[in-house]
Design goal:
The chain has twelve helices and twelve strands. By secondary structure, the chain is an alpha/beta fold. The chain folds into two domains: 142 residues, Rossmann fold, CATH 3.40.50; 136 residues, Response regulator (Rossmann fold, 3-Layer(aba) Sandwich). The strands form two sheets. The protein has a six-stranded parallel sheet with strand order 2-1-3-4-5-11, sandwiched between helices. It has a six-stranded mixed sheet with strand order 7-6-8-9-10-12, with helices on both faces. The longest helix has 18 residues. The chain is elongated and about 70 Å long.
């Protein structure tokens, strides 16, 4: 009897297979079919500051991973740090009429006019890590005030007590850049937690590590009891780090900085080059960027009519808080992130 039952089941299954359709049809949960169809075949133009930049590579890795999975296209244009190239590339994109423009503006003003033109042409715009005066449809990126606030607070807790002086120096990027202005405001508010802190200098290095090195070298000579230097960007802070090391002050002068959290930054935290590091967590930004793209491709509100933002969560890294997964590589994001 068991044999007959098994045979009957096998025959029934075989008969069922004969009448099955030649393809599997996705069940619709009410949103899935509509969502996937809205994404399929769409075109997104992506323009970072430069593709040689590690965070730009991370963002494109995340974008391409989701585009491959969901069936839309990422068209990459590389201005390579040249603002005129950026403007011309955006003008070309407006003529081509992609479904979406994703850009990392170099400043607040140079692309504002062309952003407005894109939105007037019905093309919605996502901006990453820097906003223009013409607001994007979605901003994804860093709140530089909060980055500065985090660094100010950790330095305020480390200086001006336990035998350390309260002397702190700030090395900014470009003096007039909103990222620098907002970050310095945050630093000052964070340092205000400790009344014994004295800011002995605030100088701009224009994102140049050699200028950071020269400024830090001079400050160390002028203030041999300097407690800390806060440098506005990890790519620039390598200069200040060299100055501290060359003066024999590594481990004595605190160096705090910030950046996207690429693996090389964690290595510098681990070896004591950076004592405190505020990571803007580019890997999470890649996920937020993909979320922004997918939301816009599934909606149809008028370009420029409803701007909103997805601000990054910061992570404060030090030798005490560092973990194996605190930082990222582009390969990690290409395989697993976004």
């Amino acid at each position: 009897m068991p044999i007959l039952k098994a045979t009957a089941i096998a025959v029934f299954c075989a008969a069922g297979l004969m009448v099955m359709p030649a393809f599997a049809e996705r069940p619709d949960d009410g949103l899935s079919v509509k969502s996937y169809e809205a994404l399929k075949g769409k075109k997104i133009v992506y323009m970072p500051l430069a593709l040689s930049y590690d965070i730009s590579q991370a963002w494109v890795a995340g974008l391409e991973r989701e585009a491959t999975r969901l069936g839309y296209e990422i068209i990459i244009r590389d201005p390579n740090w040249v603002t005129d190239n950026f403007v011309q590339g955006m003008q070309a994109a407006i003529r081509e009429k992609p479904d979406l423009l994703v850009i990392q503006p170099p400043d607040t003003t140079s692309l504002s006019r062309v952003v407005r033109k894109a939105q007037e042409a019905g093309i919605r715009v996502v901006q990453i890590n820097q906003m223009t005066t013409a607001l994007p449809d979605i901003f994804v990126g860093t709140d530089f005030y909060s980055v500065g606030l985090e660094n100010g607070k950790v330095v305020a807790g480390a200086c001006g007590n336990d035998g350390r002086s309260g002397k702190v120096a700030i090395i900014t990027g470009a003096a007039t850049a909103p990222a620098s202005i907002n970050q310095v405001k945050g630093i000052m508010d964070g340092l205000a937690d400790n009344a014994s802190i004295e800011v002995v200098a605030t100088q701009a290095a224009d994102w140049d590590p050699s200028k950071s090195n020269a400024i830090a070298s001079t400050l160390i000579k002028q203030h041999p009891d300097l407690c800390a230097i806060i440098d506005a960007w990890d790519g620039q802070a390598t200069g200040a780090a060299s100055a501290i090391s060359n003066a024999g002050m590594k481990g004595k002068i605190i160096l705090a900085t910030e950046g996207g959290g690429e693996m090389a930054a964690c290595a510098k935290v681990k070896d004591g080059t950076y004592n405190y590091y505020v990571s803007m967590d580019t890997a999470n930004q890649a996920r937020d960027l993909n979320a922004a793209v997918k939301m816009l491709l599934q909606t149809d509100f008028k370009a420029g009519s409803m701007p909103f933002a997805l601000y990054s969560r910061n992570k404060v890294l030090s030798a005490d808080t560092l973990r194996a997964d605190s930082c990222w590589t582009v390969d990690d994001i290409r395989k697993n992130g976004g």
